[in-house]
Amino acid sequence: MNREQFEAEALEHLDAVFRMAMHLTRNREKAEDLVQDVYIRALKSAARNGFEAKGGGMRAWLFTI
Q1: 53: phi then psi, degrees, rounded to nearest 5
Q2: How many C-beta atoms surround the C-beta of residue 46 within 10 A?
Q3: Listed residue (17, 21, 19, 31) closest to 60, CA to CA
Q4: Which of 2, 3, 39, 45 has the maximal Cβ count within 10 Å?
Q5: Is pLDDT above 90 for 55?
Q6: Where does residue 59 rank: exposed (0-12), middle (13-18), buried (19+ CB within 10 A)?
Q7: What is the three-state SS of the chain?
């Protein structure tokens, strides 16, 4: 999976990740920071190790981060 494909698939779940962050933090600014951290970690990890759709796919992976 190349970077563009990875980003497209990861961004499909942006709203769900944000809703979970809001649920956890109850604060919009903290939720936005949390989502940003999740996507930075995901992108760095995917660039380093590649992404394989195992164990639930992209959505599960993002929520695990």
Answers
A1: -75, 75
A2: 19
A3: 17
A4: 39
A5: no
A6: middle
A7: CCHHHHHHHHHCCHHHHHHHHHHHHCCHHHHHHHHHHHHHHHHHHHHHHCCCCCCCHHHHHHHHC
Read off the pLDDT of residues 1-31 as tens digits, 9 standing for 90 and up: 778 888 899 999 999 999 999 999 999 999 9
d(CA 65, CA 57): 13
CA dihedral 48→51→57→63, nearest 10 degrees, is: 10
More confident residue, 58 or 18: 18
- Token readout for 8 is 């497209």
- What pLDDT does residue 45 have? 84
